[in-house]
Specification:
mainly beta, seven-stranded antiparallel sheet, 203 residues
């Protein structure tokens, strides 16, 4: 999809639902940013969100300087795993992923590891829906201005080291909780969804 302010798609909280510092999961997608929204200067958790749990208890996305970022909020603190600046570029397709392997987190851009750290489970939001493409419609900085394709969430560590970016559409593999953004006609179509459905909450 493409929009100046970004739509907000919602799916069941149980598809991610991070409750432990040692949880294992993978979030990956192909993205094409047309532009990158300015980050909120007063709120470091407000940045372009590919996928978030609720509004901003957990979020995977990118900052206006091209930093790829995984973020959680827990026990009164914010936790970032960020790449160097200039990693995420506008005007081109790129594969991004965040992988937690029993709490050891790595982020990848086009198959290259660009960030690492430890998982801190968010202190809330576990019952909140997953948001795709925009954590909060009232915040311009959260919105994807561009396209998301082949978004997949699994409860396994799909990648544990550098890899060659997929060149064909992603498929449902063991542990897949959500596989979507593959339809050319419907933003809410899901190839695989473990529970519930995807709904539109914005434009």
């Amino acid at each position: 999809w493409a929009s100046g302010t970004g739509p907000l798609m919602e799916a069941s909280s149980t598809l991610l639902n991070i409750t432990s510092d040692t949880q294992t999961f993978t979030i990956e997608a192909w993205i094409y940013p047309k532009s990158i929204q300015p980050q909120s200067p007063s709120d470091d958790y407000r940045f372009t969100s590919i996928v978030s749990q609720g509004q901003v208890y957990a979020s995977f996305g990118y900052v206006d300087d091209g930093t790829l970022r995984w973020y959680t909020y827990g026990t009164g603190q914010t936790h970032h795993i960020s790449s160097a600046a200039g990693i995420v570029a506008t005007g081109q397709w790129q594969h991004v992923a965040v992988v937690s392997n029993a709490g050891s987190v790595k982020t990848y851009h086009n198959g290259i590891e660009v960030g690492s750290g430890s998982l801190y489970a968010p202190s809330g939001g576990q019952s909140d829906d997953i948001h795709i493409g925009n954590a909060d419609l009232t915040k311009q900085s959260d919105a994807v201005d561009g396209f998301i394709s082949n978004l997949r969430i699994t409860n396994t560590a799909v990648y544990t080291a550098a890899f060659t970016s997929p060149t064909v559409p992603l498929t449902s593999i063991s542990g897949t909780q959500l596989l979507c953004c593959q339809s050319t006609s419907s933003a809410t179509a899901a190839t695989t969804i473990a529970t519930g459905s995807i709904t539109s909450a914005g434009n």
